[in-house]
Amino acid sequence: MASPFEQRVADAVAHHEAGRLDQAEAAYRDALELAPSHPAIVHNLGVIAAANGRHDEAIAQFDLAIAAEPRYASAHYNRASALQALGRSRDALQSYARVCAIDPGHYDAHRALGFLWLAEGDRSRALDHFARTYELRRGEDRSGIANKSLTWAVHDKLIHDAEQFRYLAARRRDRLRFETLARNYEAVAEGVPDKAVPLSGEQLDALGDDYNTAIHISSAPEIAGRAVNARPDRDALLARFREREAGAVAFDDLLTPAGLAALQRYLLESTIWHDFSHIGGFVASYLEDGLACPLLLQIVDELRGTLPELLGPHPLTQAWAFKGLKAASAVAAHADDAAISINFWVTPDRANRNPDGGGLEVCRVLPPAAWQVHGYDADMAEIAAFLDQHAGESLVVPYRDNRAVLFESRLFHRSGATDFAPGYENHRINLTLLFGHHAD
Predict the structure, then answer these.
(1) Which residues, including other chains, have CB under 8 Å from residue 109's CB and lie 6 or more apart?
(2) What is the pTM of this model?
(3) What CATH number has the domain bearing residue 118?
(4) Longest dimension (CA), the chain
(5) What is the model's pLDDT at position 310?
(6) Are residues 201 and 244 in the same domain?
(7) Cα(128)–Cα(371) distance, rounded to whole angstroms?
(8) Cα separation, 284 vs 292, whole angstroms
(9) How much is the average pLDDT of 315-321?
(10) Where are the alpha helices (DSSP H) in 277-374?
(11) How many Å from the N-terminal Cα to the C-terminal Cα in the chain?
(12) 47, 49, 54, 59: CA torsion to nearest 10
């Protein structure tokens, strides 16, 4: 039979897990009467205070928990998150670093440090932490956070990887290794359907221990000079962005020729296309899962320096690359959970068989104020209907390589009709950079 203290804690946890925060807070305080200063209960009160936006109160609770248990990693982490929410970035950096000192495998702390150091302009330190998140996901020190993607597959993902190995075999000294990998992946793909399924032990043995890991990473150092083109038309771009209540503008020649060529090479050669479950018909890579490289972080910094009025107040909060695996692969209508989005394309124009399409459609009518951004799949039908209703108010941008679309993230957007030629080098690749947060 549970003790009175255990029963009060169980009641509090049940309320907390169900999202009944007021009842959970009251129950935790009842439990504290029987065990004053209990670090876990004090910590959970801090979590509730932070969830309700009472960040100063949350920090005070986390400090009490840490005083009772100095190596309480979760308390240090949540304290850092509360400091970050208050805009105290330097203090947050110290607290996140303390988490990593206590628990070197704390994925979320390393991820937060990567983005915070990038916001501070220290690209080298940011890369160190993104390298650590990648290691924790797919390296020898993996934590299990990405286990499903290491033991599941979908047919198109395996065929894509085989194509990439053949591409590498034609360009690398270890040609036989990549050709063998390609044959093994093609053989396994014959028994894998078009939907994601767990792989059998025999299939995993055939793919090898390094399936869906960093089998090959191409070098992508910062380049001398600039990676992002100087914009003599910068003022005109800003004026076009601001001419409507909802800002959206497209422009060409985002990257310098050297920057574009280096980024294309990195994305073609690096086996970083690990995500195959987010959107059907695509593989994807994220900043913390292989996409981070010195060149991309240079691009981010130079963009913020080129457009300080728009991007200066908004540090990068996420970046991803999506690659369409079928001729007509398209991203459905959605909004991004950020303040400003930049979408740009890098696949050469010769791959696009529909020069009038294949790009992006952005609705320049603000969504209803009460409409919440829940994620890619949330309210998709309603968003598509909203876009159709306001089709005449949309910015329709045809696909061009090195073309960018800059827009307010809360605006609904979707891919244009796509038709890309077959072949590994012809897969449509778009990169998305998210700056700031939706409420900024």
Answers:
(1) 77, 80, 96, 99, 100, 103
(2) 0.93
(3) 1.25.40.10
(4) 75
(5) 94
(6) no
(7) 37
(8) 13
(9) 96
(10) 294-306, 308-311
(11) 50
(12) -50
